[in-house]
Amino acid sequence: MPVPADIRAVPRPVNTIVDDSGRDGPKRYAVRERASTKYVAGGNPQPRNGKVVGHIINHEYVPVETTVSSAPVVPDMLSYGSSALVHSVTRDIEKDLLAVYDPSDVYAIMAIASLRVIKPQVTDSRLSTHYNRCFVCKDYPGAAISKNSVNKLFNMIGMDGARRSKFYRLRMKATSADHHVAIDGTLKQDTSIVNDLSAYSYKARVRGCSEVSVLYAYDIELMEPICAEIFPGNSIDSKSYPAFIRDNDLRRGIIVADKGFPPSKIKEELSERPDLHFLTPIKRNDKRISDNDMLSFDGVLSGIDAHVVYKKARIKGGRYLYAFKDAKKAAKEESTYIANAKRKNTFSPEKYAEKRNTFGVMVLESDQDLAPEVAYKCYQDRWLLEMVFKRYKSDECLDHTGEQGDFAVIGSEFVNFISTVATCRIIRKAENAGLLKQMSYGELMDDLSSAWRRADAPAEPSSADGFWVHTIQTAMEELEALGLSKPAPKPEPKKRGRKPKPKDQVEIKPKRPRGRPRKEANPSVGNL
User: Fold this and answer.
1) What was the pLDDT predicted at 522?
2) What is the distance between the alpha carbons of residues 175 and 255, in angstroms, rounded to a whole number?
3) Could you report the per-residue pLDDT of 371-405, keeping only the tens digit for each?
4) Vertex 324: Cα angle to 351 and 251 (nearest 5)
5) pLDDT of 505 strictly over 60
6) pLDDT score, position 187
7) Quick check: 408 and 149 in contact, CB under 8 A?
8) Which residues lie across from 363 on neighbouring strands?
9) DSSP for residue 208
10) Considering only CA atoms, which of 406, 328, 398, 321 is closest in space to residue 366?
């Protein structure tokens, strides 16, 4: 289609032609440069058109900005608050990973783990989108987190168990011999039909789906997980218990576990590890309770809010039993038992008399000689691991695997472990700052995500440095409380009282002589 004469008449660079694409729009008339000349046999040389250097728009030449069109688009502002909080609590984890994995893999692992904290329930296909909108892309530049790259990374991590074990050993170096290590497991939905980890657990009749089992070791003093491992969903805790200790080489601390992890299952592991001990509850019908008269309590625990009586006894084999009875729990259990018996019409005087003495009773077994108060508080602190699993499934939305192959599931759970450690540290940091008294964890992360900052901002932010973008005041106060932004300098408080006059304006009065004024100088004195 010929180009109209008025379009060709518009001033433009020399050695260019106007090309009509025939399509309506602002870029219909493209201005191309003459790139070269081709020779045709038996004819005249023919010009060869090159790249587009501009367009004729509204009868004006508009050049193409090559620096904008050819270069990748880089955002000039990014979400700062939540990514900065995650980065502030995971620097030691990054250092441990660098001692085990390739740096490029470490950046990808840390980027995915951070995004799973910042954006719970994010899918693998959406990781790169959120990566490019927050400061995670600045903390871990060049991380390969496309969907295919993530799947390849998870398979690599899952296949290399030696590296995972080496990383967990570095984590466990922070565990002292007197620390208490809580061990427990949780079930996660996994309906894959191509891996051997997905299986129906003992809860399948309730949940109606296949699952995998994830075991965690939690340092009660550090208040964070130290290692994790995944098992098939149909593997009960007592069978996974010895394998978990061997695979992660737990050698120090006092294991605080529930009834699903009996010490009889780890006899060999305990004998090989003299610095590893246990504190585990036993069943209420265990014969050792009656043989050692553990329900004849010796005193009342002090230093706790509950009303608990206790008894401590040394038994055969050098072990110790610690019996506790909580008055409030005993009354509640008895009331529930009677209510159920009434509803089902199954009350039996013999069974009631047998159970009455054990309502509210908890008996612990240990190979350590502990004070009753210490043993009770240690086991009560196990609920911290239950809170970790609650956050793991609710706050982080990690209640299903989202992967298919065995190795991919294992690798993904390894990244989830890092996300869980980061979440525990964030909650502890927010609690120390007093923020969780005012809002929930989710509300805090939502506020911090709204704090946007220019991408070219300096590494150490200040609330008054001018690099913030549409940030609400509440988020700024939270960032300052968490130590993620330096507070803006406040003006000096004004001094109380009247501002003194300048010296050149002060009227200098003669100094009055000492003593009482004379009568002549003050005639009114004589009239008193």
Assistant:
1) 54
2) 12
3) 898 888 888 877 666 777 666 566 545 555 556 67
4) 120
5) yes
6) 74
7) no
8) 323
9) -
10) 321
Which amino acid belongs to residue 83? S
pTM over 0.90: no
Distance CA 259, CA 281 (A): 6
Tell me how far apart the alpha carbons of residues 224 and 469 are, in angstroms, rounded to a whole number.
34
Helix (H/G/I), strand (E/B), else coil: 311: strand
DSSP bridge pairs for 462: 486
Query: For residue 19, is it left (φ>0), alpha (ψ between -120 and 50) or beta?
Result: beta
Q: How confident is the model at residue 326 (pLDDT cuts 50, 70, 90)?
A: very high
- What DSSP line would sit under 33-76, residue for residue? EEEEEE--TTS--EEEEEEEEEEEETTEEEE--HHHHTSPP--S
Are 382 and 376 in contact by the 8 Å Cβ rule? The answer is no
β-sheet bridge partners, residue 229? 215
Q: Is 515 helix (H, G, I), strand (E, B) or coil?
A: coil
Contact 233, 186 (CB under 8 A): no
End-to-end Cα distance, the chain: 121
- B/e letters for 169-191, b = 16+ CB within 10 Å, e = fewer, are bebbeebeeebbbbbbbbbbebe
- Please tell me the distance from the alpha carbon of residue 263 to that of residue 216, in angstroms, as a whole number: 17
* CA–CA distance, 91 with 399 (Å, rounded to integer): 26
